Amino acid sequence: MLKDLVALTKPRIIRLNLVAAFGGFWVASNWSIDWWLLMWMLLGSALTMASSCVINNYWDRELDTKMARTRDRALPAGRMRPGFVLGYGIFLGIAGALILFLLVNPLAGWLSLLGMFVYIVIYTMWLKRTSTWSTSVGGVSGAMPPVIGYCAVSGEVDAGAWILFALLFLWQPAHFWSLAIRRVEEYRAAGFPLLPVVKGIHRTKLQMIPYVLLLLPAGFALYHYGYVNLVYLVVTLLGGAVWLWHTLVGLREQNHERWAKTNFIISINYLMLTFIVMIITTNGSA
């Protein structure tokens, strides 16, 4: 039971997003860290993200039975009752939002509610079932963690918050579409109108290019506005160039699954590396 409760929250997604939230907090703090504020921000963010993932599992429970990757989850496998899972998700969301509103600041709380609304209502309930735009629009919720971390310190949405939002928003489509290409037949069988299902794999590869390309000026902007030093600029440009090169190579790669697997791994390593370097190279002059 405990294992299923944890799995419902999609801990790998939470872990990756908490790194981004920590990075946003650190950039805004300029090495002057309020450790209690950091702890409450991370806890509140983790709980609201967990809530969104649990409710996503609840809403997708029938469709999850059609995919090999998801059919062993607690709900499609029948190990938990839908009503209990929904209550669990709502409880996590209320707890997380209260922590952010009361122990961080109201802006962080409102941003978390915005992220939850986009992920649960706009993405899960609506676009995921009706449109190829689900991945791009759903990226708004995935871009919230570093903004929440940043605004927990700054108390306002300024240039730094917008740049961090852009970095995560642009990162997500190419990352997710790499997974979708690998699982395209499963998504087709489940009835999800994802881009590779509706428009094909080649069109999906083409549409990944502008997102990866735009990560380069977004990374430069963080350096240009003085939030990080030259080391970050070099790392983000080199990492982005590698990812862009591999994405372009994919246009003539015929082994789609092998290419998509590598591209997916590159995307994760790019995000982890750039945010770790961002934290280390924050120069305190912003």
Describe this structure in words.
- The protein has a single domain (2-281), classed as Farnesyl Diphosphate Synthase (Orthogonal Bundle), CATH 1.10.600.
- It is mainly alpha-helical.
- Helix 3 (35-59) runs parallel beside helix 5, helix 11 (201-224) runs antiparallel to helix 12 (230-249) and helix 12 (230-249) runs antiparallel to helix 13 (256-281).
- The chain contains 13 helices and no strands.
- Helix content is 78%, strand content 0%.
- The protein has helices spanning 2-8, 11-29, 35-59, 82-104, 106-130, 134-142, 144-154, 159-182, 184-190, 195-198, 201-224, 230-249, 256-281.
Mean pLDDT: 94
Individual helix count: 13
Mass-distribution shape:
flat
Low-confidence stretches: none
- The CATH architecture name reads Orthogonal Bundle
Distance between the first and last residues' Cα: 46 Å
Q: CATH class, anyone?
A: Mainly Alpha
Proportion of strand residues: under 5%
Helical percentage: over 70%
Question: Which descriptors apply to this entry?
Answer:
286 residues, mainly alpha, Farnesyl Diphosphate Synthase
